[in-house]
Design brief:
The complex is a heterodimer of chains A (458) and B (76).
Chain A: H1 13-23, H2 26-35, H3 37-43, H4 55-68, H5 73-83, H6 88-98, H7 101-109, H8 121-127, H9 133-142, H10 149-156, H11 158-329, H12 333-339, H13 342-356, H14 367-390, H15 392-395, H16 402-408, H17 410-435, H18 449-457
Helix pairs in contact in A: 1-4, 1-5, 1-9, 10-11, 13-17, 14-17
Chain B: H1 2-9, H2 13-30, H3 33-68
Helix pairs in contact in B: 1-2, 2-3
Classes of the chains: A mainly alpha (458), B mainly alpha (76).
Chain lengths: 458, 76
Amino acid sequence: MSANDKPRGALDREKTFELLLSQLPWRSLRKCIQANTDLHKQCTLGGYRLEPKKRKRLVQVVLKEARKADFSDAFCNPFFAEWYPIPADLHKELEDYFHSDEYKAYREKNDLGEDDYVLPDEVFERVFNPADVEKWTILVAFSPMTLTETQTARILDDETGSGTLIEKLRKVEEDADRLRSENARLKNEIATLRRQQEQASADLQELRGDRKTLQAANEALEKRAEATQGENRRLRADLGEVRQQSEQRIAELVAELERKVRQADNDAQRVQQEAGDWRSRYEQQCETTRSTREELELTQAALAEEKVRTLELEKQVALYQDFATLILSRIDWNDVGRQMKLTGDLKRLFSSLVRKLNYEEDRTLTLDGSLTHFWEGLVARERSLVHKVAQSNTLEVAGGTVEEYWRGLTDAFEDVQIGLEARAVLLRMLHEIFYQIMEMEDLQSAKIATLIARARKS
Amino acid sequence: MSRCAMLCQEERWREALLLLRQVQEKARKSGNLALRDSLEAARGKIEYSLRRQMAAALLKSAEELLRREFLLDVGE
């Protein structure tokens, strides 16, 4: 009996295939869809992708295509092949058995081929577990394994199903107990959550109050923002106006500065030109000053030399005066006065002459004419007397006797002595006239008496 | 200064010197040292002209005295 011949009619292949699909992992399901070109095309029709979140749609498409193929083995076997290793315990027991020597001996004994998979009843009883009825249902529907009617009925029997249901009911009760405890736990959690909700509500209420306050503050801030924006617009307008005025003012200032700069340049050029003129004048003046200073230094040097010379002359004069005083002190002036009787008279005459002399009576007088004439006349007499005395050896015998010759020179001797004395007096007077210091009072009258008298006193 | 120059031209040296000294003193008191210094050279020249005038008059008078008193034959 083949698998298709066994009481599969009582088996809902669509429901079983849907159960198989529900137990397939996502990776296996995607692999099966990708392996079937037509199925893959139908699944991705409309731009859908093979994604886990689209599994529900993909299962519907696969069922639709399986229904078209009447759930044939050719369509369903790839899905079964992916499902078969999933129940690991069952898979291991079956595979271990079909590859065991026991099954090999059984197959030889019952003359079975290598592609025939048959479970003896004792083996079936050993591996069959009512709790795995869904897995066995899938094996009945899609595996190549051959089961006896008894075995199939065992799997699909209503009693077996009731036992299965009882087993399931027991499990459900266990699950119910577990769920009740879970429910109690969840109730506690709900109570906790309610308390948290109440706390959250209170917080929410408080937050609403805060929100109202914040909304009011926000509205106030929005109003302030609007007012600030209005102020900002007004300030921008003012700023634009001020900026325009500033630019205009800057342009005016720049023009004014340029004009002043030009004027300053002109002034600077003029000042530089004047400075150049003044500099040339200054240099010229410096040159003049330098030459004048050199002349002054030369003059001062000459003056110093003159002073030195004057001092030397004064020393010589003093020496000569001292010498003359020495000589004169040895002269017996009484005797000389007796011999030169005219000396006192001459002095008195000169004194009276000076006292009444008015030098402005005749302004035509000149010193060069009068002094030369007077002085050279007297000197000529001296020269003549000196010549006559010096040449007396010849002259005294030339025109007469010796006595007459010397008697004729008596007047000449007296004249020369008087002339010498007169010249001495005049020379002193001239000295006083030319070297004394004239005071203002000396110039009040045209008399020189007081002048000479004051000089004598000093 | 014009009056001083006029006196000099007339060889009235004493009056010219007197006037020049008065002007110099006034310049010194007013602090015009430049004027005072500039007049100094003229003062020296005028003063020695006055001295020469005095000396010439003295010599002339002395010559006449010697001649008048027959002390010396200076008329030749």
